[in-house]
Amino acid sequence: MSDPIYCDQAATSFPKPAAVIEAVHEALSGHSASPGRSAHRYSLSASRIVFEAREVIAELMGQEDSDRVSFGLNVTQALNTALLGFLRPGDHVLTTSMEHNSVMRPLTWLAESRRIEVEAVPVPARDPVDPREFRSRLRKNTRLAVVNHASNVTGVIAPIREIKAALDGVPLLVDAAQTAGVLSLAPVLDSADILAFTGHKSLLGPTGTGGLWVRPGLEVEPLVRGGTGSRSEREEQPGFMPDALEAGTPNTHGLAGLAAGVRWILETGLDRIRAHELDLTRRFLDGLAGMDGPTWYGPESADFRVAVVSINLAGWSPSDLALALDREFGIMTRAGLHCAPRAHRGIGTFPTGTVRFSFGWFNTAGEVDRVLAAVDELARRSV
Ligand SMILES: Cc1ncc(COP(=O)(O)O)c(C=O)c1O
Q1: In degrees, to the nearest 5, what angle opens at C-alpha 153 toward C-alphas 198 and 160?
Q2: From the CA of 112, how far away is ligand 1's center (Å)?
Q3: Among the four 3, 26, 54, 126, which has the fewest Cβ within 10 Å?
Q4: Contact yes or no for 344/153 (Cβ under 8 A)
Q5: pLDDT tens digits for 10-64?
Q6: 143: closest CA among 177, 175, 119, 176?
Q7: What's phi and psi for 233, nearest 5 deg?
Q8: Is the sign of the CA dihedral 16, 17, 22, 27 positive or negative?
């Protein structure tokens, strides 16, 4: 078998730039003291790592005030913090049929236990969500809308600015899990009031990193309370960002890796990364279109999607197809429902799901061609 091909970038990015690995190693070997807790030199250098990570994330987001960025474990924790820390009993929240369970599960729990009303706007199978669908569902008690910037099932990109305009001032929470590190977040933050990100996907950092950006003037109650190294004389959680949302010792070496990943992205250029991923996506979609057997989901044009393409192949279950791709061709994909059952209901692929191919900077056109050849071979075998 020739070299393996990793097409599961939407789950987590691989490989990581060498600078990321070096930064984690250096932080663990050189500065593994507790940041923000002591005044000795090792603690200060750990604090600097966290500070620099915050600064570089803010730079990527086009924000001057890095204190509005709080770090946590991943986007799931960030979304839980935002949803549980912002919504109150009796609130109505709008979301979409494309959301990941990291939005739907906390919302379902809030609906069952906190009298929060949840309404999901349907997203068409081939098009982005229609912003007017938000406007027509607004109620007096609508307190928040939550939308992913791009779907992890079809890759469709949501029109964030138009959605915000349709919301008539209602705050908007954006799940940027699939876009941070690929699409520019600065224009998104002109519209979003809260943005959740994860560090290990296109931001190229290690797992165990992510966070929340909160617009100045907006308050999100913490999910977790505890030591911050600040205002230690008080037994109440500090109210100021980022400490309000950062109880407990942070993942310093993970943040060192995340900062290196973001620096690498800034040096490489978001435009170049996006252009490369668009090329790969177009190449893959064009190749599929020339074959008998595959059905693919989401927008016809790559311009409306990130580099995520879900398919089914006549005669194959998604799990058998993913297994054959891995075992016979060394091609790694993800089969099933991708933690987004409602999205699969919307595109008609529930309960078996699809096989998802997702590409990143380190994938090549040659790899896409090998993936297409493998899909073609398996398509012929099934008939
Ligand atoms: C749109 C979306 N939201 C949330 C998540 C959850 O990401 P994490 O596991 O990093 O919290 C993912 C990734 O699987 C995703 O694609």
Answers
A1: 65
A2: 23
A3: 3
A4: yes
A5: 999 999 999 999 999 999 998 779 998 899 999 999 999 999 999 999 999 999 9
A6: 119
A7: -75, -10
A8: negative
Task: Kindly report, residue by residue over 255-266, the tens digit of the pLDDT.
Answer: 999 999 999 999
Atom of ligand 1 nearest to the CA of 338: 14
**Tokens 């931001």 found at:** 203
Atom of ligand 1 nearest to the CA of 73: 11
The structure tokens 């907006």 sit at: 218
Backbone angles phi, psi at 273, to 5 degrees: -65, -50
Distance 44 CA to ligand 1 centre (A): 32
> pLDDT (tens digit, 9 = 90+) per residue, 277-315?
999 999 999 999 999 999 999 999 999 999 999 999 999
Sign of dihedral through CA atoms 148, 149, 150, 152? negative
Measured in Å, residue 103 CA sits from the centre of ligand 1 at 9
Domain segments of the chain: what residues?
Answer: 18-268, 270-382
Ligand 1, CB cutoff 6 Å, lining residues: 10, 74-76, 100, 102, 148, 152, 175, 177-178, 198, 210, 339
Domain 18-268 and domain 270-382, same fold? Reply is no
> Which one, of 30, 24, 58, lies nearest residue 43 by Cα?
30
Q: Which atom of ligand 1 is nearest to the CA of 339?
A: 14
Homologous superfamily assigned to 270-382: Aspartate Aminotransferase, domain 1 (3.90.1150.10)
Distance 177 CA to ligand 1 centre (A): 5
Task: Check if the beta carbon of residue 158 is closer than 8 Å to that of residue 96.
Answer: yes
Residue nearest ligand 1's atom 15 by CA: 177
Dihedral (CA of 12, 18, 19, 25) sign: positive
Domain 18-268 bears CATH identifier 3.40.640.10: yes
Give me 224's structure tokens. 């977790």
| Ligand 1 mean position, distance from CA 76 (Å) | 6
Structure tokens at 184: 């520019």
Distances (CA, A) of 381 to 41, 246, 295: 64, 53, 16
